[in-house]
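Whiteboard transcription, Tuesday session. T.W. wrote the structure tokens on the left side:
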């Protein structure tokens, strides 16, 4: 009985399995394809077989065509060589376009992965979810006849001055300082400086800021960006002082942050210049404080104790004073970051966020630079409210007023060749080197040769740096030797010649360096020494920058090519991360270096990483 049961059970299982296999389709089953069909598909895939309808038919072919078949096929030798060549060319072009599209999609993914996801806002604002929807309101309005102009007229003014403005409800461009309603003292100060009419960045930037709009300002070096944020803050502080005078320990109302002590000091001097001219015409005093390393804190506090309207600072000293509660930003409603890409880039985002956290209300935020890649622009927009982007020329482009010369000089011959290069133009001349010891060596060599020279770098004390800059600016000294502390934003009158003793590792630094000459409407010369020690990617960026600026490219740079070298006509303006024209973001050395640094810092806190000697 047990045997019969086991037998029936086994039979039942077999039957159930067979039924199941009959009911359920097998996923691994592949239908049989005849050999003839497979061969045909293979020939079609390799382009060796085409529809006969696509090729010219002879009468004999028409007779032999099977009437019952829906589609007839023929060998490619039925087509002329010219037609085959045209077809192959079309296929190649379509593949090329798809390769470009593939490259752009890949770059977009990389940019998204490296863009900072955390918004550039204060911690309290992020925690509370505070978002400002509308820009700050001001009492300034453009003249009625300018407002009455059509948008077509406004656009023609922008087009004429090569201004690219992006944003919602962009204020109209204004072509004279008088129409911008600046008071008499400001106009007198501008006239004494020989500034008769606004530059392109001022034509659009000043009305936008006076209207209370947040702004990203991008223009080539020497285009007058400083006045774009200096004049409005003086106007706003003057209005506040007239309505309700500042009392002791109140302020600042406006805050300007710069990347270096020299640039902060220069901005401070310009503010003082216009404030004094206003006071001479009977206006109230505008008190301006300077908070930078190397200057005693009590000097800054003297201004704060009397009621401070404007504070100009470097990030390090500002954070120190805020942390010690020596100053506060309770009434501050105006924030400008000069050379903003340097403030945000290279790991300073947290410092900026910390500063933002001290604000007690909405502020008008302004970002300015000559070099601002898309990565920085997109990231910075998170801190702005309905921003207006004013762009004069490509971000990171060299000034067209500068003639660029590149010379191949061996490392051991550079210092001797420097004397010959100095003979190209009369003084004043700026010499840039990468290392502090090289600056000191060049300075000593020039003094031995009888050249009136001074030097600055981050290792010198502030008094010596200030004395050197003042002596060069006044014309007492003919040559200034410096590291990159003097490359960003500094304005020296009538600099004839900039010499790059070393080619910088970053093409953005090169653009800033050569921008010390050829400022405003003047002309200038920039000579750069290169040799085999310079990285190839830097030379490729330099080559494309020279081509873009319509400069002569030396033969040793013309011959330089790489597998990664791009066609800018197809793929846009170079690397979207650093702005270099000679490579793409897929092989950006700057991005690679930052990612390597971040990887090496995982698991440990570097407490000295953001304490730059410049502060």
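and on the right, the sequence the group agreed on:
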């Amino acid at each position: 009985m047990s045997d019969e049961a086991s037998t029936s059970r086994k039979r039942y299982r077999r039957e159930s399995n067979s039924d199941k296999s009959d009911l359920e389709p097998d996923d691994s089953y592949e239908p049989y394809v005849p050999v003839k069909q497979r061969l045909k598909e293979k020939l079609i895939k390799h382009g060796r077989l085409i529809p006969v309808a696509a090729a010219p038919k002879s009468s004999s072919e028409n007779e032999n065509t099977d009437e019952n078949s829906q589609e007839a096929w023929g060998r490619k030798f039925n087509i002329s060589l010219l037609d085959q060549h045209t077809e192959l060319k079309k296929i190649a072009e379509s593949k090329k376009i798809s390769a470009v599209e593939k490259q752009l999609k890949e770059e977009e993914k990389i940019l998204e992965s490296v863009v900072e996801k955390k918004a550039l806002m204060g911690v309290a604002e992020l925690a509370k979810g505070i978002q400002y929807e509308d820009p700050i309101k001001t009492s300034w309005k453009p003249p009625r006849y300018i407002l009455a102009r059509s948008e077509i007229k406004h656009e023609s003014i922008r087009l004429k001055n090569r201004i690219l403005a992006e944003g919602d409800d962009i204020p109209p461009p204004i072509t004279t300082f008088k129409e911008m309603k600046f008071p008499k003292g400001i106009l007198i100060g501008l006239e004494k400086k020989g500034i008769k009419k606004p530059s392109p960045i001022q034509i659009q930037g000043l009305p936008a800021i006076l209207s209370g709009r947040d702004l990203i300002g991008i223009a080539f070096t020497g285009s007058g960006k400083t006045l774009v944020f200096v004049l409005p803050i003086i106007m706003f502080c003057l209005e506040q002082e007239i309505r309700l005078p500042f009392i002791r320990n109140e302020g600042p109302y406006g805050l300007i942050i710069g990347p270096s002590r020299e640039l902060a000091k220069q901005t401070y001097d310009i503010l003082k210049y216009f404030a004094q001219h206003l006071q001479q015409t009977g206006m109230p005093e505008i008190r301006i404080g300077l908070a930078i390393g190397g200057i005693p804190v009590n000097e800054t506090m003297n201004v704060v104790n009397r009621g401070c309207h404007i504070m100009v600072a470097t990030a390090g000293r500002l954070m120190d004073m805020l942390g010690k509660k020596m100053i506060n930003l309770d009434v501050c409603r105006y924030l400008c970051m000069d050379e903003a890409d340097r403030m945000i880039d290279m790991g300073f985002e947290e410092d900026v966020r910390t500063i933002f956290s001290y604000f007690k209300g909405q502020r008008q935020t302004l970002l300015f630079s000559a070099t601002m890649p898309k990565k920085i622009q997109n990231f910075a927009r998170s801190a702005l409210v309905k921003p207006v982007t004013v762009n004069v020329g490509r971000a990171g482009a060299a000034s067209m007023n500068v003639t660029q010369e590149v010379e191949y000089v061996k490392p051991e011959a550079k210092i001797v060749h420097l004397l010959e290069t100095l003979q190209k133009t009369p003084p004043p001349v700026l010499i840039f080197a990468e290392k502090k010891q090289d600056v000191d060596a060049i300075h000593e060599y020039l003094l031995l040769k009888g050249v009136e020279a001074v030097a600055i770098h981050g290792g010198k004390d502030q008094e010596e740096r200030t004395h050197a800059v003042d002596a060069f600016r006044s014309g007492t000294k003919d040559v200034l030797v410096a590291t990159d502390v003097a490359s960003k934003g500094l304005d020296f009158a009538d600099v004839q010649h900039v010499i790059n003793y070393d080619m910088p590792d970053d093409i953005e630094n090169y653009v800033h360096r050569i921008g010390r000459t050829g400022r405003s409407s003047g002309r200038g010369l920039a000579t750069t020494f290169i040799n085999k020690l310079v990285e190839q990617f830097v030379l490729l960026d330099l080559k494309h920058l020279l081509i873009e600026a319509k400069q002569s490219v030396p033969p040793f740079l013309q011959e330089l090519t790489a597998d990664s070298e791009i066609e800018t006509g197809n793929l846009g303006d170079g690397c979207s991360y650093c702005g270099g024209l000679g490579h793409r973001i897929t092989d950006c050395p700057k991005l690679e270096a930052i990612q390597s640094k971040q990887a090496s810092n995982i698991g440990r806190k570097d407490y000295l990483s953001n304490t730059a000697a410049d502060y």
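Someone added at the bottom: The chain is about 45% helix and 10% strand.
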